[in-house]
């Protein structure tokens, strides 16, 4: 016959063990989530490069899809490919920041930019940018137009852009913008009114 | 041991379940109103056929519905109806109506037993409908289309089917004759279900209706070709030329030419975007883009019909169609204009998108990826007309030059429309919104104004391609 007091003590201890176990699991998941968030944040521009004024073509979902030029100071490398990459990372950082006029999902980022020939920029975005992108004709084209126009405004010679996701081609960005074609910068310039 | 028995039972039941599923696929109800004809999927629940009541009433007039707990309320014009989930009784305009089976609510949709659809439509519309039960065809205000058969004995003989109103059948060429299938036309039987012709070429004409469609089967000693004439009021059937390769049985085709230039029938092809496994944007927790655009497409179809313009839907059910498949269907449709319908919650009003491809209207052959270049001038003209009409009605409108699949691969005038709305509830609220109705009406008016341009383009295109489907 096991004493009643012993049964109660063992039960309490077991409850404690399970409770602490679940709490530890919860803490572990929370830490992992935090680490993922930090890992997916856009990388800051290199600080040893000189600061320069650049033009970011910022998309505004409201009212009715505007693209507006914003001059910012960035530390940019001189090599065009690295420069294009940092420009787009700075652009996407604007869109993932709280209060953005054109909200992109947390963790959205640009992995690489390849300048091909004299005029084509191949932009390799991460999956978070496409998977979490708002769905719609206008909102998707504002993203593409904003990227293409930012590149054209700061990298001389770039007139066309191709967006790929995690190194692979996708049919659409989020169901509406055709990614199978090259984006012609002059044609994307017509897509949205520029207040300036 | 029990695991082995379970597996044996599973594999024995699998083919049965599969065959049952196949049998249920594609079952539909067709509704014919004074303005339009449309088909809806029939869903089986617990051995009983059900259909969405809102979807049936939606093309007939202003309708809205909302759900509160187990109660589903529907308003059609000024008449209120109330349905309780799981109950066999409904209230319509203060009158009690017995349902043969329980009323169901699924994802905010009110499903009524198919057997009660005539009673309910009669109660809501106040009209006397006619329901062909075995064929699932509901005649709600549409004037039935009758036909007569005339055999013209010559060499070779011709069979002329004259209809009392324009029709748009699908033609299935077979080894020994042809079948004409009417999905959206309220075609009913001639005086006799079957007519014997007693001709060496043409044997008989038989009428049947099943699964929401009417079917006229022409039995002949050879495969037949069909052509439309007299503004689609006449179908002429002739034996296919003996030098031509034999037609494959059960191959569906658009109505082809039989040699003489075919009179072009103008119609608008409306493509409700997404569908099936591709839901598109989530407009609310109850409403996916694929469902909203289908409702909106049906509304545009009804508004176009009210202006005397025929319109067809590229999909009328929740079906998955890839962009390439859409392009192929559209390019072979011979439509005068294609409208792709999208919806989003961001912003308000309507966005009108045309392909950014440059015009190459003089080109005879264009690459698949830039097929729209040959039609972009007309696409832009329609987009301009749409924007003008919407702005006249104070609807916020934005023109966008954007590649929306499958725009670039479409060789016909193509405009993508994105309805921006923020529905607070399900598809009922979205469909019934005042803005959606105003936009649909403006779209129909704009297309009506562009019709002469589009008709002449289609006619020129038809001549340049010898009248054959592209």
What is the secondary structure topology, with strand pairs?
The complex is a heterodimer of chains A (196) and B (470).
Chain A: H1 4-40, E1 51-60, E2 66-75, H2 80-96, E3 110-116, E4 120-125, H3 127-131, H4 137-154, E5 160-165, E6 183-184, H5 185-189
Parallel strand pairs in A: 4-5
Antiparallel strand pairs in A: 1-2, 3-4, 5-6
Helix pairs in contact in A: 2-4
Chain B: H1 2-24, E1 28-33, E2 37-41, E3 43-45, E4 48-52, H2 53-57, E5 63-68, E6 71-76, E7 79-84, E8 89-92, E9 95-98, E10 104-106, E11 109-113, H3 117-125, E12 130-132, E13 137-140, E14 147-152, E15 158-163, E16 170-174, E17 177-182, E18 194-196, E19 202-210, E20 213-220, E21 224-229, E22 234-239, E23 251-253, E24 267-272, H4 289-306, E25 310-313, H5 323-331, E26 337-344, E27 349-354, H6 376-392, E28 397-401, E29 414-420, H7 427-432, H8 434-464
Parallel strand pairs in B: 1-13, 24-25, 24-26, 26-29, 27-28
Antiparallel strand pairs in B: 1-2, 3-4, 4-11, 5-6, 6-7, 7-8, 8-9, 10-11, 12-13, 14-15, 15-22, 16-17, 16-23, 17-20, 18-19, 19-20, 21-22, 27-29
> Which term fits the overall shape of chain B?
globular
Number of strands of chain B: 29
The overall pLDDT of chain B, averaged over residues, is: 81
What is the global morphology of chain A? elongated
Contiguous low-pLDDT stretches of chain B (5 residues minimum) are 1-25, 242-263, 465-470
What is the C-alpha radius of gyration of chain B, as a whole number of Å?
24 Å
Fraction of residues in β-strands of chain A: 15-25%
Tally the helices of chain A. Answer: 5
Number of strands of chain A: 6
Q: Report the end-to-end length of chain B measured between terminal Cα atoms.
A: 61 Å
Tally of structural domains of chain B = 3
The largest beta-sheet of chain A arranges its strands as 3-4-5-6
**Would you identify the CATH architecture of the largest domain in chain B?**
3-Layer(aba) Sandwich
User: Helix share of residues of chain B?
Assistant: 25-40%
- Count up the domains of chain A: 1
């Amino acid at each position: 016959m096991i004493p009643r007091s012993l049964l109660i003590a063992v039960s309490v201890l077991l409850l404690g063990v399970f409770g602490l176990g679940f709490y530890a699991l919860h803490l572990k998941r929370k830490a992992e989530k935090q680490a993922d968030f930090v890992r997916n944040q856009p990388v800051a521009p290199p600080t040893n490069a000189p600061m320069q004024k650049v033009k970011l073509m910022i998309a505004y979902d409201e009212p009715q899809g505007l693209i507006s030029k914003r001059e910012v100071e960035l530390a940019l490398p001189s090599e065009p490919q690295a420069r294009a990459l940092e420009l787009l990372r700075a652009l996407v950082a604007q869109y993932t920041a709280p209060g953005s006029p054109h909200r992109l999902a947390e963790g959205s980022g640009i992995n690489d930019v390849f300048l091909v020939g004299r005029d084509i920029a191949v932009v390799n975005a991460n999956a978070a940018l496409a998977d979490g992108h708002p769905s719609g004709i206008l909102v998707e084209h504002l993203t593409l137009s904003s990227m293409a126009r930012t590149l054209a405004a700061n990298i001389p010679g770039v007139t066309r852009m191709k967006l790929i996701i995690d190194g692979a081609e996708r049919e659409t960005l989020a169901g509406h913008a055709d990614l199978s074609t090259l984006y012609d910068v002059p044609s994307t310039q017509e897509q949205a009114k520029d207040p300036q | 041991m029990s695991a082995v028995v379970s597996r044996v039972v599973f594999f024995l039941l699998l083919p049965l379940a599969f065959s049952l599923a196949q049998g249920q696929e594609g079952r539909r109800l067709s509704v014919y109103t004074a303005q339009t004809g449309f088909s809806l999927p029939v869903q089986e629940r617990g051995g009983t056929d059900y259909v969405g009541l809102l979807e049936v009433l939606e093309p007939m007039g202003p309708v809205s519905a909302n759900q509160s707990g187990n109660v589903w309320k529907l308003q059609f014009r000024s008449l209120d109806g109330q349905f309780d989930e799981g109950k066999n009784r409904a209230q319509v305009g203060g009158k009690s109506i017995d349902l043969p089976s329980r009323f169901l609510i699924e994802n905010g949709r009110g499903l009524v037993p198919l057997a009660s659809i005539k009673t309910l439509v009669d109660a809501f519309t106040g009209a006397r409908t006619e329901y062909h039960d075995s064929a699932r065809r509901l005649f709600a205000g549409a004037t039935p289309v009758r036909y007569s058969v005339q055999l013209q004995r010559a060499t070779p003989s011709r069979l002329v089917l004259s209809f009392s109103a324009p029709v748009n059948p699908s033609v299935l060429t077979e080894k020994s004759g042809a079948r004409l299938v009417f999905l959206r036309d309220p075609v009913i039987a001639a005086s006799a279900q079957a007519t014997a012709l007693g001709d060496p070429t043409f044997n008989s004409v038989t009428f049947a209706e099943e699964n929401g469609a009417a079917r006229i089967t022409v039995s002949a000693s050879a495969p037949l070709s069909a052509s439309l004439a007299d503004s689609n009021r006449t179908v002429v059937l002739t034996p296919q030329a003996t030098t031509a390769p034999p037609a494959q049985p059960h191959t569906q085709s658009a109505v082809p030419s039989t040699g003489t230039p075919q009179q072009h029938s103008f119609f608008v092809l409306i493509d409700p975007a997404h569908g099936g496994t591709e839901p598109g944007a989530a407009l609310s927790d109850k409403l996916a883009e694929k469902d909203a655009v289908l409702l909106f497409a049906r509304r545009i179809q009804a508004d176009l019909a009210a202006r005397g313009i025929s319109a067809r839907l590229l999909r009328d059910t929740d079906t998955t169609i890839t962009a390439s498949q859409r392009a192929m269907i559209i390019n072979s449709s011979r439509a005068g204009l294609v409208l792709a319908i999208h919806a989003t919650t961001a912003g308000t009003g309507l966005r009108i998108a045309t392909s950014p491809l440059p015009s190459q209207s003089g080109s005879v052959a264009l690459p698949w990826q830039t097929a729209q270049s040959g039609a972009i001038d007309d696409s832009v003209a329609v987009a301009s007309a749409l924007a003008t009409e919407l702005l006249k009605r104070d609807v916020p409108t934005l023109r966008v030059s954007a590649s929306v699949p499958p725009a670039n691969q479409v060789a016909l005038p193509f405009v993508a429309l994105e309805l921006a709305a923020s529905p607070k509830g399900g598809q009922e609220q979205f469909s019934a919104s005042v803005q959606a109705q105003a936009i649909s009406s403006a779209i129909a008016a704009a297309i009506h104004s562009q019709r002469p341009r589009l008709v002449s383009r289609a006619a020129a295109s038809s001549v340049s391609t010898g009248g054959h489907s592209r």
